[in-house]
User: Fold this.
Amino acid sequence: MSPNRRVYLDHSATTPADPRVVEAMMPYLTERFGNPSSVHFFGQDARGAVDSARRQIAGLIGARSNEIVFVSGGTEANNLAIRGLCEAVEPQGRHIITSSIEHSSVRGICEALEKRGWKITRLPAYEDGIVRVEDVRSALRPDSVLISVMLANNEIGTIQPIQEIGAIVRQERTRGRKHLWLHTDAVQAAGRIPIEVEQLGCDFLSLSAHKLYAPKGAGALYVRRGVRVLSQNVGGHQERERRAGTEAVPGIVAFGAAARIARDELDQRNDNAKELREKFEAAVAERVSDVVFNGHRERRLSHISNISFRFIEGQSLLISLDLEGIAVSTGSACSSGTLEPSPVIRALGRNDELARGSIRFSFGKDNAVADVDYVVEVLSRVSEKLRRMSPLTQEAMASRRVPQTVGRD
Ligand SMILES: Cc1ncc(COP(=O)(O)O)c(C=O)c1O
Assistant:
């Protein structure tokens, strides 16, 4: 039986395409179908559209348009930045500093490089989910070539001190260190907080279209002028030799339009998300027992709320909410039949139970107060029901760890 209403609270996973974005993209799926590498009218028309989108993306982050490389999404942007730089500078050093709460794409790339003999320092994120600048400074070694720390976390939304890390990199350069670069994954942050690459002091910055109300399949990597990356795709001259392959013109045009709209509507979207999230968190604290809020309370994106529900598996809660028409996500993943706790929530020092019981609620521009009311009502009902059935609650009762009304550790 399908639910009577649906509430989408998973905007950090992906966003629906904005109708204005679809309208901008449509001609490039139909009559304006040229290949930007073609010399004729159709090709040059498509080239013009790609260049205009490049300017719009550059405008969102304060970059020059020739510093934008179009790719297929955030994962590819991260691959191009990290592998593309590391392969280019390997003779200068083989040490990377990153954080323990990066997106799986950055984590995966670092693990792959580690298998090839690279040394990786993974910085702690402490209980509030924020990397400390002093830790970055003390992790630096003579062979460090890259610092890769995300601008905002995708599970708990915490905003990282990239500008301060950028200042360390600049300081190191003035001291004569030539081979140290800074990458930041801004996939979640873009369109949510103002971004100025010069201010951040980063050399690379990753973006993804589908988190910004554009369709999936487009992304961009900002590469600071003068910085070299080795293309991970070969066999074509596109994107000034940095990413071979015909540009995905409709997706790129959509991405450009979405970036322009996101910049114009940034404040309005943030105000709306913040209002909904505050209302939501206050109501959850009041109506649902044994919850733990994750991540720094202030230094975080306005639309993400991450909550651990004691004595409940996040996956069971997710499925129960889905049956009631509510879409959310959990950082814990099913791997070979067992539930792996979310590595991000574990990195905050939470135990496995809390890391398995965490749920991310991420609000979007089209959510309304009625959505919050519905979700809180369902959440209080469903969480109680799951707890009554949960072996975790029974274990807790047996060891006299009786659920309390509100937990906030
Ligand atoms: C922080 C972060 N980086 C990278 C990605 C990957 O982006 P994409 O889905 O465009 O490959 C995501 C997607 O969830 C993300 O949240």
Summary: The radius of gyration is 22 Å.
